[in-house]
Amino acid sequence: MAAVIPETEPPTTAMRRTLGVRDGVAIAASSTAATTSIGIGMGVLALYAGRQTPALLIIAFLPILGIALSYARLNRTEPNCGNGYTWVGRSVGAWPGFLTGWVVLVANVVFMAYTSTVTGSVVLQFANKAHVYSVLGVALDPGSTGVSTVVGLVALVLVTVTAVTGVRSATRLQWALLVFEYAVLLVFCTWAIVSGHQSFSWEWLNPFAIGSVKSLAQGLVLAVFVFWGWDAAFTVNEETKNADDASRGGLIALGAMLGLLVFAAIAFQRAMGNAELVARGPQALTYLGAKLAPEPWASLPLAALMCSAFASLQSSVIPTARGALAMGRDRTLGRRWTKIHPRYGSPAVGTVMIMALSAAVAVLAVGIPKINLMILTAVNSIGLIVALYYGLTALACAVRFRGALRDGPLEALRRVLVPGLSALVLFGLGGYLAWQYATMSDHFEATPDNGWFLLLIPTLFVVTGLTAAAVAKWRHRSAYFATGRGTDADAIALPMDESARGPVRPLP
User: Fold this and answer.
1) CA gyration radius for the chain?
2) Which residues cross the membrane (predicted)?
3) Alpha-helix runs per DSSP H in 130-166
4) What is the pLDDT of residues 3-46, one digit of tens each?
């Protein structure tokens, strides 16, 4: 068995407890990136759900709420910046626990790669509005993946610098960006609802009106992806003054996200027909601004979209580095991920490494020529991965608190039945869609409408995760796999603070 850290040894990976509920809300809300999701996602959702997009969002929210309550319950018992990685490892098993941490890490790297490209595209749209269409003979085309990626990588470097210099300063910047983008979003969506020429119908809230089970399943996976990000609040639970603040921040951000998404979906449908909305794709929000207002006011939604993309990039760097930190502490990843900056109290080395990996993926994605095709590919693939790790974490909650089945119907419902049902819904949804992808094409082609290609990406996530787990277990002899029940209790020393609860030991 690998050597473990003695309980008396002071932790070498302790981060500073400086955050509160407000900071958790900022991180979670920025990570969910409502404005970006609305700006580039409404057209994609309309492709599958049609005019029932508002209903689809409400239906998708129900299992996500069950997942969020599972996170809050587990966080109350065991605050750990590895969250799902640690909870699944201790409750279900080391292999599914490692896989949870791995797919979160890889999914966030891919998300940051495509978000940096989206950010670059928004900057180029601003350049076009200023009548700058080329630089040194290079066309500044917002629809070009290559040019957008180059500009986006500059943005990625900038947000990484702010993430390294401290999470508290990062959340202050995120709050400023959130206030501006939400104000713009609410004003223009309200304007669209009041002045829109498309008649409102209660059928928009009827999920049974969606054309087919396949369209419903595809739309639900996309909707799950749109909600994705609220769990970022739980990655800073070792930096909050009270671990419950992380739970409150995540739940508040998730509730706000539901309201904004449904409100925006109705607004878009009041202003545009379904064919028009689908055709506009990732430019739907900027098109709405131009449709409702003259310049310079028409550019405000574009400015809000740029703020959202920057904030989302930054808030994705923060949780990804902390998840890798938790894995590094268990020796399932290298020790370099655990290094804390002595001045800023942040996992600086890991943060920079995450940036470098995301930049590499973004460069590889240049092979997909049009940015809307790249977005569709990333969203479909990551949606399956999000369903997998959310489902595993909810399952961990049901397994850990299974004793509540003897404590009465209310406790059984809260601790076991709701988490377990939420996990089954997401597993069933992911399994059905994976089967659809496997049977929809008769040949392989690297396009977003090829089922084998869409299935290949999440499959690679899982296969590489299992391979990395095997290396950690048998080559590095990580203590995470030593007990047969997940994380070894002595392999992690949680930071201590007089105002916070002490480290939690694994359940017997």
Assistant:
1) 22
2) 25-49, 55-72, 92-114, 146-164, 176-196, 216-237, 249-268, 302-325, 346-368, 374-395, 416-438, 450-472
3) 145-164
4) 443 433 434 445 566 676 777 787 788 777 788 888 777 887 88
User: Are the C-beta atoms of residues 393 and 100 closer than 8 Å to each other?
Assistant: yes
Of 69, 88, 100, which is closest to residue 389 (Cα–Cα)?
100
**Listed residue (64, 62, 96, 87) closest to 401, CA to CA:** 87
How many Å apart are CA 243 and CA 504, to the nearest integer?
A: 12
Q: Are 83 and 74 in contact (CB under 8 A)?
A: yes
Q: Which domain holds residue 428?
A: 21-491
Residue 120: both structure tokens together? 């670059």
Quick: pLDDT tens for 216-257: 887 887 788 788 888 888 887 877 777 777 888 888 889 988
Q: Tokens representing 394?
A: 């909810």
Nearest to 38 by CA among 57, 66, 65, 12: 57
Residue 138 β-bridge partners: 135
In a domain, 500, yes or no: no
The answer as to whether 166 is a domain residue is yes
Domain holding 388: CATH number? 1.20.1740.10
Q: Coil, strand, or helix at residue 220?
A: helix
pTM attached to this predicted model: 0.81
C-alpha to C-alpha distance for 319 and 30, rounded to whole angstroms: 12
Q: To the nearest 10°, the Cα dihedral for 314, 319, 323, 328?
A: 50
Q: Is residue 446 part of a domain?
A: yes
> Beta-carbon neighbour count of residue 54 at 10 Å?
22
**Amino acid at position 364, single letter:** L
Q: Which two tokens stand for residue 395?
A: 């399952």
Angle at 343 between CA 338 and CA 345, to 5 degrees: 40
Q: How far apart are CA 356 and CA 407, in angstroms?
A: 49
Tell me the pLDDT tens digit for each residue of 125-139.
888 887 887 787 777
Q: What pLDDT, on the 0 to 100 scale, is given for residue 309?
A: 80
Residue whose entry in the numeric block shows the structure tokens 């609802």:
193
Burial class (CB in 10 A: 0-12, 13-18, 19+), 139: exposed
> d(Cα 375, Cα 356) in Å, to the nearest integer?
20
Give the percent of the chain with pLDDT over 70: 86
The total number of residues shown for the chain amounts to 508
Are the C-beta atoms of 392 and 102 separated by less than 8 Å? no
Taking alpha carbons only, the member of 446, 451, 40, 33 closest to residue 278 is 40
Residue 16 lies in a domain: no
- Single out the residue of 196, 454, 441, 157 nearest to residue 314, CA to CA: 157
Question: Domains in the chain: how many in total?
Answer: 1
CA angle 335, 327, 4 (to 5 degrees): 65
For residue 488, pLDDT over 80 is answered with no
Is the Cβ–Cβ distance between 168 and 344 less than 8 Å?
no
CB atoms within 10 A of CB 297: 14
